[in-house]
Automatic annotation (TrEMBL):
Pfam hit, one: NifU_N
Family: Belongs to the NifU family.
Occurrences of domain NIF system FeS cluster assembly NifU N-terminal (ranges): 10-129
Name listed for the protein in its UniProt record: Iron-sulfur cluster assembly scaffold protein for SUF system, SufE2
Cited InterPro entries: NIF_FeS_clus_asmbl_NifU_N
PANTHER family reported in the protein's UniProt record: IRON-SULFUR CLUSTER ASSEMBLY ENZYME NIFU HOMOLOG
Organism: Loigolactobacillus rennini DSM 20253
Molecular function GO labels: iron ion binding; iron-sulfur cluster binding
Gene Ontology biological process terms from the UniProt entry: iron-sulfur cluster assembly
Amino acid sequence: MALSKLDNLYRQVILDHSAHPHHHGHLQQATNQIELRNPTCGDVLQVEVALADNKISDIAFSGDGCTISQASASMMTDAVLGKTPAEAEEMVQVFSEMIIGDQPKLDTTILGDAAILNGVAKFPARIKCATLAWKALNNALTNGDGKGQAHLLSQHQDRDSE
């Protein structure tokens, strides 16, 4: 019965993050942004990041998606705020390994609330939903995958002002 209560608590945290997402919206001064889509279910997510002094000084997300993708994005923004890009990229790696169940003894404490999404590994169809925001963050920080999906805003602004 204790496990059932814990499962209910985890569900409540996920539902709360989905219904009342943290850092939802747009940034006034984003330095990096990206939009990613999950073609499997139609989730669309935009992530905007502001970097200052080699740290994520602000972050926001917007878009439409299922409960899992929206909750995961909300938890991700809480977890990476104030981190360096290298720290955030490490968190993306840990989250990815956790969500696909690769590392049963993985230390997920660096993920904060997002660690409760480890149960998604039991539902392969939902893995892409849970990882969408994390992949978007990683692509935004590394300036995308070379396919032009990520936009480093400062480069575009410099070109536009010439």
